[in-house]
Records
---
Amino acid sequence: MEIETIFLEIALLMKATAITVLIWFISQALYAQCTPNASFNAPGNHTTAGEGKMNSAEINSDYSETITVIPPVSYDTFGLPIAVDSIRINGVLNLPDGLSFSIGKKLIKRGKKSCISIVGKPTSNNNLGEQTITLDLTYFANRGSSIKHPKNMSLELKKEPEDTTTGILQSPVLKQDIRVFPNPNNGNFIVDVGDLKEATSLEILDLRGMIVFESTIESQKIVVKLDQPAGAYFLRMYLSQSFITQRILIQ
């Protein structure tokens, strides 16, 4: 009887452990906010702007960037190569005001990929020009040792674009003229351009910058039906001399 009790306790413990592991994997899947770019395979920190670079951002304009992180084979310590087993993404430092980050998978084994999503709207003119964004990384060697190994990314922060016809800044009223409803939504929504007769076309982009929907504007209301995963997307509407970007959330 005593042995049966022990086996029962072991079975219950194994069940609880399995449930805990399952919950962890589900949470990792749910909270991953980005997808690594499949076209990048070499070690490094990549964006569509190039290794070690980020696409430029503009003040008061919606911004999205995905950094694909691929661990190196080794790193040098005092001139000696140390084989890398894995790296951990701890965070992102020195982001301009208005931008935030999320991490796909924090611990990456050698030969695997993860990503960092940078989204938001820069709000300060105090740091215009080239910025140095730091990826806070930890490298783990095959023998269990670790070392902090930050990597820098360059980001050019530009002032708010000017209207090329009048020489004045784009009016914030233009963004208010565009209505997206409902927002958040399930992928089906309506874009109402209001009285913006100069609107010519629109695109929907994911956080990787990939176009998932595009349409010409031939009426005041455009019906959009997206079969895409839940998450943040960006609507970009092209006008005769400029464009407007708005954030959309699919739940």
---
Amino acid sequence: MLLEPLNPYAPPSVDDAPVRKVSPEPPRDGAFRYRETRNLSLLVIGLLGACALVSLLHIWSALIENELVAQVLLGHFDREAFDAVDERARMLQVASAVTVLSTAMAFLLFVHRTSTNVRALGARNLEYSPAWAVGCFFVPIASLWKPVAAMRELYWAAEPEHDGTSWVRRETPSVIGAWWVLWWAAMIGFSLNKELLSGSHPEQVIVHNQVGVAVQLIRVAAAVCGALVVRELSRRQQERAYVVFSRPPRKRTKKRKEPAFEPLDDSK
């Protein structure tokens, strides 16, 4: 007896219906929820640019002051010019304090969000919690190496392709290492210049400003490296998020059923 063949005009079954694509929710992992970092990273990069600009203005002001001090050594003293230098220096100190404080707050917020995101995107075996990734910047002595270790962990945990634990790496990316070395060099140089090289004698003022120019150049380089670190971390998170929840689902293929036939009975 011949079974009924497939009817090509029959309505499709549930399994044959096309898969409807639904915009997924942001991935979550327990208490951790993914949040986009693009706008926040742009804010941090902009503030780092403002810090670099203030440092360049410090350099410009120091060079002008050195020219005036050199004129003093030659016997020419311009009080109005020195008053203008002092007023400009006070304004730059305020601008520097505001930009540094604002940048630090935005940067630490970015670090906290990144640490939360990498967990929401499936990273496992992380040593630094979101709170500890921020708090380690404020711990005496440990702040010498803990922050760079936390940033290294976030860098590799945000790797686009990993299965949760294969992201673990030991080496520190060069851009993170350069940022951290430059940042500490600028801080140490600023403190030493302020405490050891400051003075009222014209020659001391010139040396103080020359060292200050070098310190400000290091701060500019540190700001550039910091911006590169933030941009790279943001980019890696976006690529990882795409891999986790924006990859097209696998299409289900249904094997076509071949018509079945009953064996013929030759005896009939």
